[in-house]
Each structure stands twice: as structure tokens, then as C-alpha cells.
Design goal:
binds zinc ion; 18% strand; 8-stranded mixed β-sheet; alpha/beta; 8 strands
Amino acid sequence: MGFVNGEVSSMKKPSIDVFEYTGQFKRVLCVVAHPDDIDFGASGTIAYLTSQGCEVAYVMVTSGDAGGDDSKLTRRQRAAVRENEQRKAAQAVGVKAVAFLGYRDGLVESNLKLRKEIAQKIRAFKPDLVITQNPERNWERIYASHPDHMAVGDAAIKAVYPDARNPHAFPRLMKNGYVPHTVPEVWVTGSEPNLAVDITKFFSYKVSALREHASQIGDGEGLEDRLKSWAESNAEAAGMKKNRLAESFRRMETR
Ligand SMILES: [Zn+2]
């Protein structure tokens, strides 16, 4: 079973485990490029985890100032609208802490400055799990591979290992009291999954969270059906019972 060295040429897909929360983690940090990314990819899972008492925080690398069609707004005004939408969407799934790093939408690069800022957030929040985006191109679906998503996924994983845990990485962080922290596990959205989370009971929270992004979804017509069909195919791929809904991730242990 699974994806082991030597089986690559036979094109076997990794098997998909179905996640069950048993207290494995208490603190979850989500690091994504734009407002709404986490809601499309993982807000059903977030609702599940917060319902179990997990504390979840979001880091948004940009404020989505290049998204949507309303050209009447300035970049700053659009950023303010989208930050507000994201705060409300976070509340809809039990998340209170939302930080915006203020990078320009569309211009994000995975560089040392971004790695340092994410490492600082990790050392400050001390998560047991980081959820981020896929740093690799998804050849099936171009929307998953927005350059900002790939850059943020790459920087976040490098911040998990080695930056956040290595006392010699970014020594100013230590000087400012941010002691090293090891994040034991990372989940990546928009990737070849090996983990599915049953969100059937939390699907309505996901829909509510996405409806908060009014500047992006317009009147939201067809949104729920679209979300449902994605979630059904995730569940089916994981071998779950009919009519179940799931979000899926690539899970990686990091120690
Ligand atoms: Zn995005």
C-alpha cells in the first residue's frame, strides 16, 4: 500500500486515510496567500477542529488586493474589504486570530523575508499542525497553482523546516524572544491527497464562511452545489460511504 520508492513508475496513487480527531493537536496555524483560499480548501476541517476545542489561527500573506472585478476600488480599499470578509469568514468556523502580512497580491515570492515572517508566526503561536498550500504545480487544475499559492506553500514548508526549529536560523528572532519551535505535521491543500477529513457535519459552516467573501463570489449562485460536488468527489476518492463530504490534504510528518 501507499507510495514507496520504486513504485513511482507504476503510477500508483497514494492511499487516502480518513482522519479522525483524537486530540492529536491543539493548535493549528493556517498559512495561505489570499483571503478565501483557506475557506475553499479547508474551512470544513477548521470548523471540525474548532468544534473539538482546537485553537486555530490564520496568516494571510496578502490581503487579496488584486482579486475580484470591482475596478472602482483602490488597491487599499479592496484590501480592506477583503480583510473584513476574511475576518467574518474566520468567525463562521470558530477562528478569532487572523493576521495579514501585507504582501502585494500577485507578486509573492518565496524568499528569506517571507520565510522569516512565517517562522516568527510559528514560533509565536507554537502550532502542532500547519496547514498551507501546494508548492508544486498541479497539472490537473491550473487554479490551484496560482504563483502566490506556490510561493506561500514553499515558504511555509521551509519555515516549518528548518527555520522555525533551528536556533541558528534568523538569529534576530531569538534575540526578540521567539524561541525555536518544531511543528510535527504539515497538511497541504490542492495536492495529491493522502488524507481526507469527513466534513459532512460541518459543510454548512464551510458554505457560510465562503458566503462572507461577497466581493469574490458575487451572489453566490451555484456555490453550494459546486462545493458539494467537490466534497463528494474527495469523499469518493477516499473510499468513504455515498453522500459523505470531505476535504483532502497531503499530510507530511516532519520529524
Ligand atoms: Zn488564492
